[in-house]
């Protein structure tokens, strides 16, 4: 659910040390107009992303009607329902060459994932049990010529002969003249209900007329009460400021164990991956994932170049040629009864959950223009970002036939853009926190795009913050990292001019 032209307009004050503006003033270049402009930094910390709030969670996707159902979820400041503290998926857009990729977690936040079913590369067709072939007996035959192109990010809205499908600056074009009825969706799989009955949240609708989103168009379910959800918080003590979170938890800091590498990828021939699965929005019922005329292609396994659907989990080659190629990276654990709701028949995997997790990458982003003829697609704009894993498992791009966003993205279930090029051929990579309807924003400083060179980069969740940072060239993606090493990476020096601090919450 990436929106490269959606700029954050929420300016939040920084409570501690230098503000982003002061960093720009201190190290930026002064232009002829007398203004100071932002500068390259080595690290950006988004301080205190932990607040209470709410979003609409998807409970059903029905291809026979083209309608998605939702329920309102009110979340606390901690726990698996809190945006980005629950499961996240990782996303890559070209042009990009990836040399290494690694995911780390603390042992206390690994045990649940460790019990899941691993999908080995090459030797299994599907992450789920084999589909009953009779389940698709009413579905229109799938042909490559019928396939809806995987939706991409555009700079304008497009209108087809039936309707306009828009989520902010993302346009989803469907084959409206070829809509066909498919079999009904399966019931919601292990959907968790939280809190008292509440109406759905209002979501933006691009029509001029007002729509009551608590009406049947929202297809919202009532919620039922469950016991309070809690989550182990292994690192309550903060390295940014002792006043930042000391009052947020009474849990005493204990010596933390090492962070274990739970997934690793290298492109060194032959490409190898442990703990990762590589997917894309290319679903084909004959291979993996699914397709229908209401919602297009679901997630599926993908060939090593990210360009075609595959029948089984394959290692990534490491190269995404242009911005026309995107892949979604999940764990190698297939969804089971404990996985939150996912689109029926989609290839679905667990992401990585917890308030302490870290992702490391080595990549290069040389300049290559798109090869396609569609000039609406963003070109030469690589990116690395994270989504609430429920978004791609349901529908990363698009709305239902009531023009209501199908996934929880539009109501703020969480996206973090770690390293994103926003314009064609830009040399500056920005970062942004998207949580619509909740606190969000983006730091004004930037990272330098690695053109003609490799760059090692990391994103570290260290409760209740997220830090994105450039690593030393010699940094080793070893099988374990000590907690002290992680704390050194994310520690903030109030006198630093290369580490920016951006306040999301107090």
Automatic annotation (TrEMBL):
Signal peptide start and end residues: 1-21
Catalytic activity, EC: 3.2.1.39
InterPro entries: YJL171C/Tos1_C (IPR018805), YJL171C/Tos1_N (IPR018807)
Swiss-Prot/TrEMBL keywords: Cell wall biogenesis/degradation, Glycosidase, Hydrolase, Signal
Single GO BP term: cell wall organization
Keyword check for Cell wall biogenesis/degradation: yes
Domain called Cell wall protein YJL171C/Tos1 N-terminal: residue spans: 43-105
Record-level GO cellular component terms: fungal-type cell wall
Cell wall protein YJL171C/Tos1 C-terminal domain: residues covered: 258-489
Region named Disordered: 130-157
Pfam families in alphabetical order: YJL171C_Tos1_C (PF10287), YJL171C_Tos1_N (PF10290)
Enzymatic reactions: Hydrolysis of (1->3)-beta-D-glucosidic linkages in (1->3)-beta-D-glucans
Gene Ontology MF annotations: glucan endo-1,3-beta-D-glucosidase activity
Family statement drawn from the similarity comment of this UniProt entry: Belongs to the PGA52 family.
Family matches, as PANTHER family: PROTEIN TOS1 (PTHR31737:SF2)
Protein name per its UniProtKB record: glucan endo-1,3-beta-D-glucosidase
Organism encoding this protein: Paraphoma chrysanthemicola
